[in-house]
């Protein structure tokens, strides 16, 4: 308990110390950043608040069909839920706008607002208030007020009832639209990604605001026409022809409802927006020219000479406003439009910030684990010497207290002749250390002359030495455990540091390489949607391409992969393909480094006595880091429990290696886990071969296992190592054996049930080499079956022990499609790796 408390205090100190500094820095930086952000947000919020108030004024003045005004109440209802801080100013602005409308409807608007607020307060009292109820509240308020007014003047008819219903329904629809559009102006959007439906709602809101400028004119130029064409120019420059035409249709429709004489504006604005959008790849002047051309053509066709002249002046005024618009405003608008480069860049910037924050956090955790590892290793030699002296002193005090306290010569021995007594005590302890069963006859004569209680002192010393020895044993166990924990923490820290480097590496800008690949593929006539290079490290290439999938031709394996191999200078193959769920005809294909070697495996085995469960376990799996693991484990004994032990050993080792942990540290961690799992003496052998699929270099981890064999032509090579099984000793030494394999090599791994088949009187290694050499087949599964069958025949069909053999054959990979050279394609320049 004392040791546990000390460890908790040390860990708490390290964590507390590590995070306190980080927290203080973060707190200081966050405070300064928060102050700056508050000023910026206050300024921006004030600017948007003024814009919302101006919009409320224009919506209060806006009317359609010369008698319906469904805009103001819908706008105020949404502001009530999203920006209640400016609700009063918005209400006053809408009231002022209604006073200046063509047909004064101020009384209706004020009454509708009051009814809406009363219903809303009643709902809030019963805790039923929600933004989703706003459309129904607006519909009810509008319908009830209009119906009551008609009933008061006794002018209710089927026509008036229909118009009341139309206005109430329009208010409901506009409320739904404003719910989507107004958050863009209220700073409640958390990102720049808007859906196409939200963009349409935003355009409807802006067109509705423009209806508030109907009948405003400066000479022959009408304000609503100038603003509508200005809006078309903005969206045509940002989103191209689709957005330009869409904005033209929506604004033209709404303006024609507000002014029946401007019905032709819908076709004029739609055609102008389409022409302006088609020229967006030029510059502002090209977009302006497209809009002027479109408006002029339809004006000549539909209007008189005066109308053509007025339309031209309106277009020129819109172009002047468009050319004076700051570039920053256009870039901000482009961030909201899906598909634009600015929108993609904003999303990439956000992803890059997330990557940087994640990498920084992982590095912080890595440093914490590294500090914890150092804290466990802070046991120097000086500390060990001082602890040794303290332990010896404690031993002497215990002996003196139990044997000398009641002796009448205590003061003479320990006060007058302290050094002499202490020396004799030390010598006695040394003798007992060398002879634990020391008897009274073996007590030195000099000691008998000095001490009158030699026999009693001897018994006490032997008893205390036994306790002292037991204490040393457990302290050594604790020290070994502490060192093991330190090594494991260091391994975890290294894995997290590698992960942080991997995250940073994925954030590299590879635009030039992506563009080079895109140009090469487009020259071949392939339709490529997006290219994303995740990694260009040698042997770890990962490229993701989204292209139009042509069923039956398989361009990815036949054309794209060979072309990428030629560009990059390394064999590239298709790792996986995934069709998009939507029926857009697109497919996502991931290309990666093609392995230079392939591994084919075969397994054969039998349980002792023909039982169902064997104590042996095997695993053949690709670890994901370019290595292929062939593993075999033999649990102690036979049956289900031995199988569970061996299977656990393989699973733990596989997970540790897949996480990126060093091989030796993974074995030590596995050993400690197996020791802690059970108090029984359970152990397991581990025989694993890690085959590098890029160069065929193979690392053998043989933990208590028997030799493995490599068949290379007619030669058979033996691989062995002297390592104890895992789960026996608290600390084991791991010797790894590295051997380069060649194409065509056959690796044979087996458990002791097969290796011990010839008996003790025969050289097992030579016997097994001859047995392997006599097998002619090169197919791994046939090889394993043939070897197991020969062992059966040798024992006349009797299975004396669990027997398992795993055979793996390494072959040079033959690419499915050869690379080809395309004129003008140059070798790609790879970026430097992030350190």
Describe the structure.
The chain is 59% helix and 13% strand. With 835 residues, it is of the alpha+beta class. Strand 5 and strand 6 (586-593) form a beta hairpin. Helix 6 (158-181) crosses helix 7 and helix 8 (223-239) packs antiparallel against helix 9. The longest helix has 60 residues, at 2-61. The protein is elongated and about 135 Å long. The chain starts with a helix and ends in a 23-residue tail after the last strand. The relative contact order is 0.05. Residues 1-44 have low confidence and may be disordered.
Structural class: alpha+beta
Number of helices: 26
Share in β-strands: 5-15%
What is the rounded Rg? 43 Å
Helical fraction equals 55-70%
Main beta sheet: strand number and arrangement? 5 strands, antiparallel
How many strand units? 16
What separation lies between the terminal Cα atoms?
Answer: 44 Å
In short:
Pfam families: SpoIIE (PF07228), SpoIIE_N (PF19732). With 835 residues, the chain is an alpha+beta fold.
For this entry, give a set of tags.
835 residues, alpha+beta, 5-stranded antiparallel beta sheet
């Amino acid at each position: 308990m004392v040791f546990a408390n000390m460890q908790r205090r040390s860990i708490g100190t390290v964590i507390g110390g590590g995070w306190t500094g980080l927290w203080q820095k973060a707190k200081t930086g966050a405070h300064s950043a928060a102050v700056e952000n508050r000023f910026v947000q206050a300024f921006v919020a004030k600017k948007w608040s003024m814009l919302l108030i101006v919009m409320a004024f224009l919506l209060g003045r806006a009317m359609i069909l010369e008698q319906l005004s469904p805009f103001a109440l819908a706008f105020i209802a949404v502001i009530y839920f999203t920006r209640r801080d400016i609700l009063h100013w918005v209400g006053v602005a809408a009231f002022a706008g209604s006073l200046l409308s063509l047909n004064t409807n101020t009384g209706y608007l004020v009454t509708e607002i009051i009814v809406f607020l009363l219903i809303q307060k009643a709902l809030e009292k019963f805790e039923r208030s929600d933004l989703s109820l706003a459309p129904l509240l607006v519909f009810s308020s509008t319908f009830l007020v209009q119906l009551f007014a008609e009933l008061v003047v006794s002018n209710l008819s089927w026509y008036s009832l229909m118009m009341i219903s139309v206005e109430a329904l329009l208010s409901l629809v506009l409320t739904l639209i404003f719910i989507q559009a107004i958050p863009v102006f209220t700073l409640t959007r958390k990102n720049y990604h808007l859906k196409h439906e939200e963009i349409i709602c935003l355009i409807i809101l802006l067109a509705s605001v423009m209806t508030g400028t109907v009948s405003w004119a400066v000479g022959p130029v009408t304000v609503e026409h100038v603003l509508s064409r200005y809006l078309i120019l903005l969206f045509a420059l940002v989103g191209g022809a689709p957005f330009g035409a869409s904005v033209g249709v929506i604004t033209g429709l709404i303006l024609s409802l507000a002014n029946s004489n401007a019905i032709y504006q819908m076709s004029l604005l739609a055609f102008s927006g389409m022409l302006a959008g088609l020229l967006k790849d030029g510059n502002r002047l090209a977009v302006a020219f497209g809009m002027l051309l479109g408006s002029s053509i339809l004006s000549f066709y539909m209007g008189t000479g005066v109308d053509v002249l007025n339309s031209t002046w309106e277009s020129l005024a819109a172009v002047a406003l468009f050319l004076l618009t700051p570039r920053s405003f256009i870039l901000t608008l482009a961030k909201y439009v899906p598909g634009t480069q600015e929108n993609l860049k904003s999303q990439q910037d956000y992803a890059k910030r997330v990557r940087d924050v994640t990498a920084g956090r992982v590095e912080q955790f890595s440093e914490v684990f590294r500090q914890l590892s150092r804290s466990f290793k802070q046991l120097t030699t000086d500390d060990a010497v001082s602890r040794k002296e303290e332990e010896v002193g404690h031993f002497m005090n215990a002996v003196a207290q139990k044997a000398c306290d009641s002796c009448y010569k205590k003061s003479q021995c320990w006060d007058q002749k302290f050094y002499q007594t202490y020396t004799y005590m030390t010598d006695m302890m040394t003798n007992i250390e060398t002879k634990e069963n020391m008897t009274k006859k073996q007590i030195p004569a000099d000691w008998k002359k000095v001490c009158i209680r030699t026999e009693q002192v001897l018994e006490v010393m032997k008893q205390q030495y036994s306790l002292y020895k037991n204490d040393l044993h457990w302290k050594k166990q604790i020290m070994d455990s502490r060192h093991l924990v330190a090594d494991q923490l260091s391994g975890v820290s290294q894995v997290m540091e590698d992960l942080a480097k991997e995250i940073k590496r994925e954030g590299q800008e590879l635009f030039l390489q992506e563009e080079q690949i895109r140009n090469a593929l487009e020259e071949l006539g392939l339709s490529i949607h997006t290219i994303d290079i995740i990694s260009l490290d040698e042997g770890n290439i990962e490229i993701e391409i989204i292209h139009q999938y042509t069923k039956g031709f398989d361009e990815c394996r036949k054309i794209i992969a060979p072309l990428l191999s030629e560009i990059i200078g390394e064999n590239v193959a298709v790792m996986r393909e995934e069709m998009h769920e939507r029926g857009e005809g697109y497919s996502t294909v991931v290309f990666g480094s093609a392995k230079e070697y392939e591994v084919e495996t075969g397994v054969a085995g039998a349980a002792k006595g023909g039982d169902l469960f064997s104590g042996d376990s095997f695993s053949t799996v690709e670890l994901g880091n370019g290595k292929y693991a062939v593993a075999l484990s033999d649990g102690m004994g036979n049956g289900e429990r031995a199988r569970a032990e061996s299977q656990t050993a393989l699973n733990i080792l596989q997970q540790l290696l897949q996480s990126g942990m060093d091989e030796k540290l993974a074995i030590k961690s596995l050993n400690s886990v197996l020791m802690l799992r059970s108090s029984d003496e359970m152990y397991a052998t581990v025989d694993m071969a890690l085959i590098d699929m890029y160069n065929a270099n193979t690392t053998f981890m043989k933990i208590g296992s028997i030799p493995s064999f490599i068949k290379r032509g007619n030669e058979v090579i033996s691989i062995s190592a002297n390592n104890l099984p895992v789960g026996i000793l608290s600390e084991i030494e791991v010797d790894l054996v590295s051997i380069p394999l060649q194409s065509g090599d056959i690796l044979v791994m087996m458990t002791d049930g097969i290796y011990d088949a010839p008996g003790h009187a025969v050289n097992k290694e030579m016997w097994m080499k001859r047995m392997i050499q006599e097998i002619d087949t090169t197919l791994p599964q046939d090889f394993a079956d043939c070897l197991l069958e020969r062992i059966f025949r040798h024992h006349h069909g009797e299975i004396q022990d669990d027997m398992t053999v795993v055979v793996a054959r390494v072959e040079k990979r033959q690419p499915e499609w050869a690379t080809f050279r395309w004129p003008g394609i140059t070798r790609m320049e790879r970026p430097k790796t992030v350190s």
